[in-house]
Amino acid sequence: MLLSELERFIEEDIGYNDVSCNIIPDCNVHAEVIAKEFGIVAGLSEATQVFEYFDIFAATDFTDGDIIKENDIVFALEGRARSILKAERLALNFLGRMSGIATLTRQYVERADGPRIAGTRKTTPGFRKFEKKAIIAGGGDPHRFNLSDAVMIKDNHIAVLGLEKAVYAAKKTASFTQKIEVEVENSDSAIQAAELGVDIIMFDNMPPDEIGKAIKILKEKNLRDAVFLEASGNISLENIAKYSKTGVDVISVGALTHSSNWLDLSLRIVSKD
User: Which of 138, 143, 163, 235 is most buried, by the most CB atoms less than 10 A from its CB?
Assistant: First the structure.
């Protein structure tokens, strides 16, 4: 992360009158970051940056995407006691939040067993790039990082312009590097979008059986191979296998970021010099 970002996070967490950290002797100590449950670790480089900012030596045998188990030592730390206490919460926040996303992403990837699992833009303001990175660590696809990465024509665009005019406007305006994706809610719109030559069709909030029927029609019209197909909306760990069997290429899941639990980790001082 940028130094300016890191210092903004530190300012938010420490404030202007940190009594709690300053009342202890500033001796040299050894500490550990311990995993308290099974999961997929992410946020290691961000936590390392936090520790190094406070002149704490941080060593780890893990890389983002690795499995961690209960009682694994994720970091071995050495530094001044006050510095470790100042760095503790921010470093654990990165690790807990990002590892939770990576863990949930891995669960979706394993249950999907084929189609790519992608995130969405349903992210925490100011923290998107870290959440997207966590999705990658879990084996997922980040999808768009922002509106400029691709042209997505959604229901509200279609409500204003109509599907055909919206696609034509996008093709006229977009760079050759930008793919055009259309959100559809039924088979007819999917066929129309494919015939208009879009790059990606997203089946939005469509049940698996309807998606399967739409894909069958695309195949019959020799349109299937010309488009990338995505399913999104109301997809959970319980029903993702049904969506996987429809034949889509990717399944996007907002829950990866808006509904993931934090992975439980803690920091403890184990000795002092």
Answer: 138
Q: What DSSP line would sit under 44-109, residue for residue?
A: HHHHHHHHHHTT-EEE-S--TT-EE-TT-EEEEEEEEHHHHHHHHHHHHHHHHHHHHHHHHHHHHH
Q: Per the residue annotation, which of 122, 179, 213, 216 is the catalytic one?
A: 122
Copy the structure tokens of residue 28: 């040299």
Q: Which structural domain, as residue segments, surrounds residue 191?
A: 150-252
Buried b (16+ CB within 10 A) or exposed e, 32-58: ebbbeeebbbbbbebbbbbbebbebeb
122 a catalytic residue? yes
Q: What is the pTM of this model?
A: 0.93
Same domain? For 9 and 57 the reply is: yes
Residue predicted with more confidence, 14 or 223: 223
Mean pLDDT estimate for the chain: 94
In this model, does residue 273 exceed pLDDT 80?
A: no
- Could you report the per-residue pLDDT of 132-185, keeping only the tens digit for each? 999 999 999 999 999 999 999 999 999 999 999 999 999 999 999 999 999 999
Helices 81-112 and 3-14 pack at an angle, to 10 degrees, of: 110
**118 located within any domain:** no
Cα separation, 169 vs 157, whole angstroms: 11
Is 119 domain-assigned? Answer: no
In the chain, the number of structural domains is 2
